[in-house]
Amino acid sequence: MRNYPEKGKKTSIAAILIAMVIMISGCGANRPRWGYLPTATLGNPFPDPNELGTHSSGMGLFMEAAGLVYTCRGGHIDLDHVRGSADTTKYLAKKITETLAAKTEVFSFNMTGERSLHRITFAYPENWQQEPNKEKIIEQISIDTAPYIAMNAMTWHEIMTWFGVHFLGFEPEFNSAFSWEDIYSNLVGAKLGVAAMKDKEHSFDEAMTKLIYDALNELEVQSKKTAIAASRSMEGKWYSAGIIPDMKMRNFDIGLDGEITPTLVPDVAGCRECEPMTLKMPTVNTLKKYGFTMTHQIEPNVFEQDKILRAASSKVIFPERHFPILIEFMKKEAQGKGYSFAE
Questions:
Q1: Can you list the positions of beta strands (E) in the chain?
Q2: Per-domain residue ranges of the chain
Q3: Over the stretch 25-47, which tens digit does the pLDDT of each residue have?
């Protein structure tokens, strides 16, 4: 096991707080990871991109490096978001497989540390009972649909933080909502989770360890020094430094047009000629191909839910229907606060 001196005491503090999350809220779809702001401020680690440790979808808190790296084509990448998204995708693929194999219609889940309940409901094609290739079809549906649900769940997390939900009851969250690297990092992780599940020669964690390095190389990852410099160059522009940084740059691109484009820091040394690598969003096309339909309903179960539901003009949340409405609401609020944002 490698040591990561750049994390120091922050790792121990994060481990204690993560344990508190588990005790308070129980286990959910993913093991808890902390996540960090892309700011050159106290508490945000920038690991060596060549020393990222071993991915652990279990409780191996000290096996993997956390924090921010910078890539020329993907901007800042939050490793905790990447890892958490991949693990959530794996978990959801298993839940989908179990549900369809048992020919049940509904499964529910919550993300670790969150009270919101996600209810997934399937409707089967009329000829499903006579289908001879059920096992193969279920595998395809599970792998292709899991990242779609995962992205919904993680976008919901960002929405809750925007509306002031505190997941430990005391820590500030609004400043991290839709920070400029969040959603893209989630999508990178969801795609890597799918690739790791398809790797039949390695365990999920072994595959993820390699895939993270491969993905970062494809995105043209830069040194730790460059990552810190990129963040520092945005101080006073995209964020105001302090114990709790004020994030003045957000990214509300959640893939409503079918893809997500990363936010690149301008004029980063070694990256000036690079174009952003846009990624396609996961879909439910495989479900539709085989005659299934699916609904994803969210019960907020948070103190701030009345405010969220009023903004959505609804008593319940269906991501496909209400996320676009909520995004527009948040954009208007961001404008009122004088924030900049990508969309």
A1: 68-71, 75-78, 106-109, 117-123, 239-240, 246-247, 249-251, 259-260, 279-280, 293-299, 340-342
A2: 8-342
A3: 445 666 777 788 999 998 899 99
